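In keeping with the milestone schedule agreed at the kick-off meeting, the structural modelling team has produced records for the first pair of proteins. Each record is given below as a sequence line and a structure-token line. The laboratory manager (R.T.) confirmed that both were archived under the project's standard naming scheme.
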Amino acid sequence: MKLAVFGATGGTGREIVAQALDAGHEVTVLVRDPARLSVKHNKLYLVIGDVLNLEKVEEALAGSEAVCCSLGNTANNPDFVVSDGTQNIIEVMKKQAIRRLVVVSALGVGDTRDRVSLSFKMLMKTVLRKAYEDKERQEQFVRESDLDWVIVRPGGLTNGSASGEYAFGMDASIGGGQVSRADVAAFVLQQLTDDTFLHQTPAIA
């Protein structure tokens, strides 16, 4: 499969890229700083640019069959870089007739707000307020699109190796436990061809 990955220099994004390449996919990534992407592979193609630049998004998506979006927000980014960037991705996907979009969001967004601890809710209102407002807006854009989307909401992320042992799905009992980025990446890649959670927001923890 020809896959485009956005947010490839983040922790989860790097795992998605590495695992996709290991699985034999051709992967195109849009990155601002190629030095932050340590993966080298003959099936990895780099587009240098910003997700807020529509022309660069078009270049990154050209010829792709599916898209993984693992964009994150940091203090140095514009307020709505994740949601505005995702809006650009959606626009170009429609233009290029690409259907499948798998987005990495976060537990605590939308109807999973009550599944996180009280202390984390306080962080969501303070330190993480900007990031969570951006994620809420991102999910809204994805839901309102007519694409074949899946929104994955992981719990607390760790740098552990892939274990294959995690809870996932729509059940409200899946709370804010930890999960490795490697396991999240594996689950995200499964959603590229599995319709079990099409137009749904499975949690993973």
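The second protein of the pair:
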Amino acid sequence: MPGSGLAAAWEISARLPSTRVVMLTISRDDSHVFAALRAGAAGYLLKDTETERLPTALKDVMNGEAALPVTLVTRLVEEFRDRAPRRRALMPSREGEPRLTSREWEVLELMRRKMTTAQIARTLVVSPATVRSHVAAILRKLRVPDRDAAVRLLDNPEP
């Protein structure tokens, strides 16, 4: 496909929200899977998928289900399972206190991986200005002075 399949998924999802997008790719990279799902893809199939499985996978997507190889589903579950305890520890328990959005959690995790603003922007397919806005909101909500302090809080939630 000329251009970016990810950009096409964003555009299709934005212009035709009822359209179900399925990515057919060779990439098994977690960041590509997550980016495709964030772009609105309902399926992420690998090009080495057995050809007999494709019609069933596409029918499943047409019927409102997701189409992901089992190996990728397992990695998605591991990704969320790995971060869950840190998220619960940082989430305020009292009503009315600010909470991080799911996008802010994604940015915080990428900050933890020592990614720059530009790298985070490319990974999330957003502008650097959007990343800076998310970082500012994270720092404000966690009441910390800088990225390093936010990451330390993520890694060591106990005071």
